[in-house]
Description:
This protein is mainly alpha-helical and 70 residues long.
Amino acid sequence: xxQIIVKKFSRKLREExxxxxxxxxxxxxxAKLSRNFVxxxxxxxxxxxxxxxxxxxxxxxVEPWELLKF
Length: 70
């Protein structure tokens, strides 16, 4: 996966989380993921899997594809 796409996704994820006034920890709990993993996604250190993308989207009340609209 291109680093450009990873960085764009990481910015979009952080933006969506902050718009909902959620901490990384709260988002992680809602998505049933580790806070470490959410932080790594937001910093562009990890690639998101499809299953994690679905979990995060559900926690944010958005469609998964919306997190991929840059």
